[in-house]
Amino acid sequence: MGEFVVHRVRFFDYMPSAIRAMAFNGSMQRLAVARGDGAVEIFNFADNYFQEKVIPGRSDRAIEALCWVRGRLFSAGLSGEIIEYDLEKLRPRYSVEAYGGPIWTISCNSQETLLGVGCEDGTVKMFEILEEGIQFQRNLDRQKGRIISLSWHPSGAQIAAGMIDMIRIFDAETGHATHRLLVERGLGTTRNTEVVVWSVAFLSNDTVISGDSAGKVQIWDAVTGTLIRSHLITKWDVLGLSVSQDESSVIAGTSEGTVVQFQALASTMGQENNQWVRTRTFKNHTHDVRALVHTDTAVVSGGMDTQLVVRPLLDKVEKNTKESALRKILFPHKSLVCCAKKAGLLLFQFPDHLELWRLGESSAKGQAGDRLPVMKNPEKLLQLQNKGEDHICCSAVSPCGSWVAFSTVSSVRLYKLQLSNGNISIKKVSKLPKELHSVHQLCFSSDSSRLFASSAQASVVVASLDQLQCKHLHTLKPKSGSSQPIHLLSASENGNWLAAAHTDGQIHVFNLHKLKLHCTLPVYSSCPTAIAIHPTTGHLLSAHADQQIFEFSLKLKEYTAWSRSLQREGLHPLWLQRDTPITHIAFNRNKPAHVFLHDAFMFCIIDQSLPLPQARKKLYNQMDLKTISPQKRIQESHAFKICKMFQHLLSVDLLDDSSLVVVERPLADIVSQLPPPVRQKKFAT
Amino acid sequence: MAALCEGYTLCGLTPDQNNSTSGIDGIEEERDSDHVIVTDSNRTVTLYKVSDQKPLGSWTVKQGQTLTCSAVFNSQANEYVAVSDNKVIRIWKEGDVLLDKTFKATVKADIWKVHCAGGEQPVVLFRRGAVRQLEHLLSDPQQPIEDVLAEDEAVRWSAAIAVQTQQFVLFTTELGGENFFYLQRLNPHSLQKYHLEREEAGLLPLSVSASYKDDHISLLCLYPNGFVYRSLVSVRSPVLDEGPRALPLPRNRVMSLPVGEGRLKAASALFLDDSHIAAVGAHHPSAGADFLCIWNINFQTLQAGKEMGGKIYGQLWNYSNKFFIPHGKRLSVIPFTCHKSSLASALGKLRQARPEESKCPTYVPSWNKILHEEKAPLSKTGETRKTRSTRKTQASLSLTAEQVLELVKTAPAEEVQKEVAELLSRQDIQDLQLGKLASILVCRSQADPHFYAHSSFVHLVHSQFLCHSVCPDLLPLALERKDYFLCQMCLLLFPDIPEVLTCTCLKAFICLPDVDAEKMCLEPESVSLMETLITSQHCQGDLQNGFSPPSRVEAHSDTANDQQTREGSEKATSRLVCPVGSHKAALLNGILQTAYSDTFLLPHLKDLNSQHVLLFLRYLQFLYLRYSQDTFPQAHSERAPSLHQILDWICMMLDAHFTVLVMTPEAKGFLLNLHGFVQSQVKLFSELGKIEGSLQELQKMKRKQDVGQYSIEIIEIF
């Protein structure tokens, strides 16, 4: 296959934000995750945990709790507002001020008619859930001290509130507090510090379970208001609790990074008197576990160390299947790096700014395995700071490197760059067409004369770029009434085609000359994670969350022979077992048969001219091929050439001079930027 | 022993008009022990090379500005830090010529002092008690500075101490005649407030100094009445809930410096080590004032003194065994030496310090108590009041100590025992009286062959108020009367038995037939320990420190001929049989645990005959093998000699009798065994040495693979 010059880039200081809250919608199999920067991410658990939507954050939005009500998502936070999100436009739909100071928790009753929020001023406020919004109904009896956590009794008649040093139980009907459960403080020096009940859970058998800052998980009888059992599980805080659907299991997350499972078990076989017994301890985090979800089959946890961990419960899933594997989601499933192929520039997207870098150069030649001396160091050309509170949701740099565009939920900004022998000048395009105001994805045509932006109602805005002008040309709309946002855009190199993929799995291809829909691909069950149109053959390649790959001929409007044979023979089992999605597809103009793809742990070159790997053959065979003779190598090699030399990849792209750009973000670098974890005794220190 | 060397002048002084202050603000150590920076109270900072007595650089602030705190040297950044006009932090390097062109930062509150302890980052202490790390402060100089101290509270003295990674800022304050001590920890920040006990009305400390040792900060306060107090503050103590409450800081008086007439005006005291303080401004006991003195606080003796010409300003600094003292019109440097001086170190090897011992020290009477018995209170100040009252109540019930002293001279043995036991059970007894009591009893026993107060002696020794020096005839008497239990107790509890007596005891114990020894009643713990050692089944599986006795025999058999091998294997089995009985062994253990100095002990050891030497060596070898074989609880029992003590004694016995042993045929196998052991240890260490090199290489290789931020690589894909 040959040698490649690789620019190995590690200067993208991407820092994921800590996970603050999570909510799981069992009927939709969607997990909503709120991060420290206010962003909300939606993961589809039915589709390989694919991160299908990201609602960008806002610097003043500190989300403390999330709540699903049927298909609607609400959040509440320290700003004191309750926000409902528009999951199609990927932005807040409206926000309602609760007038109770910062909100610590939000909880919906099982009838899904009332939303309770716990406020700093000691009130539990009830909001009625209406079709078009929420409306304040009333306050429950006001307490001294903040309401940290809330949990409804499944009947909806009572609500338990975790506070400082105590738990209150309210009658939801009258609004009066019926019980006061005093929570004991910690021992020793912590006796003087008040104990915070970080989390409560109200079960249908009138049991209240609480987790507090003294490290205890306590089980209370809500009828008598008495403590039944207390488990000290950590020296630090128990930050979160989550109960399984059938109320037979509870998990608790601690500041030590452990998740402890409790199960209601009968002390003797066949008897009814179940007791809560501590059963398992999972340690998948180094820092605070702030958010927890107990799904039917797995423990989902997230916290300060920014990783989302899905730990299947092995008694609930079949062993040695894909479901039984531990999954850690480290990086976004969407590329934050944009590469200007012609100009050799990299655009890095941060929540509040963009960085534009020029790659270094080396004039030396070398053999495989060499590291070339860098003649010219990479150079940071530009740092574009976003104004305003809203975070950047998408960005793009044109292939020639002369245009940079980015968008927040409220506005799009476009800049013209001029690079002349070391000097850089930047001009903002002041007048943008009004159609460009809220976009989810941006893309430039290969000749940099067009800007494509996916907009509301699944439409694509086409704008022409000329000197310092940007004019609206057309808005492309698919015929079918899909309203799910477009999360992927790809224009063909010859300027004929534009492909757009929706989060519901639809892929539309538009003819850019006629400015109308060319065809719609057959909808596949799994969401596309990357699409690209081949520069010479005009085939559309799509990779999906379940690791399938399809190739569709745009001329013939049918799957190509290669795609059919791939489906017929099936992908290699090891390929299907990978747990990070393909996030980018690139082609080599000079070698039309080569396709470049990458996920977080490998990049792969598919040589479509070679036979596909058989299931019993070795998929990762680069090391084997290296050692055998060239003749034998031809016999042994197969289409999937996988390189695992680079890890924790954020981007792999091919420049026009056929050199590769690999953007790595080593985990150690991320870990080093995290705050120190809680101190733990090791070896009697 | 401490001594002051000949001093020399570092620079001249320009005292102010009324000659009350020296004109020196502070002296700080610079990059090494030979460089100091001197800040004078006007505008100048000067860097001196001390041994050359010459300035290397000098920096002055503009006319109209003043330096308000002494400059410090930040060795991490090679920078000087000073403060001018209370609020302006100035930082410069040695190369900078003009101070005005260097870095300045103005902060929001008045600075008291900048401290830089032990190569750590500088720390800024504000007048109102807030503490900031300089780095943090400079990152936002306009940050608000909180008030820690009360309205009229003012900082009087401050210092910084760095302990490993932890840094402490200490300062004392005064508020309406009361003095407080603050201990500010950095990273994590916490502040602890202590209340210093009040001296006589209106007396405020003249000088304060602090030193750090073994997790404790000791604070030395000198008051105008010449009293020097020491307070210990544990730095490991848990950080209590921070409140306005000030903890009382207990103190004890370590010295009472002579003051002449009236009170001290300008004086200063510093810790040199555990037992020495340096004082300036106090009177020399025989000459007049204006002396620099070194006092031993254990023995309350003057160790060295030097007259300082001219006025003394009460300022004293100590850096790397040099005093810096401004006096008259110059700043003098006086090098000094200060060695540990304790009775035991003068006489021989110190007892092995064990953690248990540090808790309950043996009460060797100090000269202070003997000479100023009534004047100097007991060190436990908190208890004095209580003991006084108990003494009053008890005196009416039973005999006073003086009466007992009279009584024991004549009374029958039973009555003596009863009275002594009663006296010991009281709390207020004084060690000196016990010493007298013991000497009287010993004298009487020596004079009267029928009188011997065994249990009284045992009680007295047990009280730990006795030592050999107080009652030198007790141990010989016990030996003479064959009271081996008392001998054992003395060996275990006295810190100062002369080597000649140790040797006499050893001889007596070895000669003692086992049959007689078994009948004796000895200290039960030591006997039971030896019994378990002798009888317990050994497990040969464990190795310690890579050394296993059987493999050693094998290694040794490679070189020796067959006969020796057989001998060796016979020995191997016999070696684990204790050559002495458990009672005798318990007595010998007492010997092993005494303090000694080998130069003094060796000549006396030569008196033993070869049979005894061999027996003793076999016993030592037995002990050693037991220790190295199983993980025997060496450290658990106070009655068990440590492995080091055993090895020291083996070496000493071999040194003393080497030629004799070489000539003795029975000793041959034994010596070969020891030789084999040493060989195996040498082999182990040489192997470890070989591994070291490879391990270092591994570490180097790892470092090489580190990828930087960017690289251009060539890969090949097949």
From TrEMBL, chain A:
Entry's Gene Ontology cellular component terms: 90S preribosome; small-subunit processome; t-UTP complex
A biological-process GO annotation: hepaticobiliary system process
Domain of life, source organism: Eukaryota
InterPro entries: UTP4 (IPR046351), WD40/YVTN_repeat-like_dom_sf (IPR015943), WD40_repeat_dom_sf (IPR036322), WD40_rpt (IPR001680)
Name of the molecule in the record: UTP4 small subunit processome component
Organism of provenance: Oryzias latipes
TrEMBL record, chain B:
GO cellular component, one term: nucleolus
GO biological process: maturation of SSU-rRNA
Region (Disordered): 548-572
Keyword Metal-binding: no
Residues covered by the Nucleolar protein 11 N-terminal domain: 1-336
Biased composition (Basic and acidic residues): 553-572
Pfam families membership: Nol11_C, NOL11_N
Keyword field: Activator, Nucleus, rRNA processing, Transcription, Transcription regulation
Domain Nucleolar protein 11 C-terminal intervals: 413-718
Localization (cell): Nucleus, Nucleolus
PANTHER family assigned: NUCLEOLAR PROTEIN 11
Annotated protein name in UniProt: Nucleolar protein 11
Underlying gene: NOL11
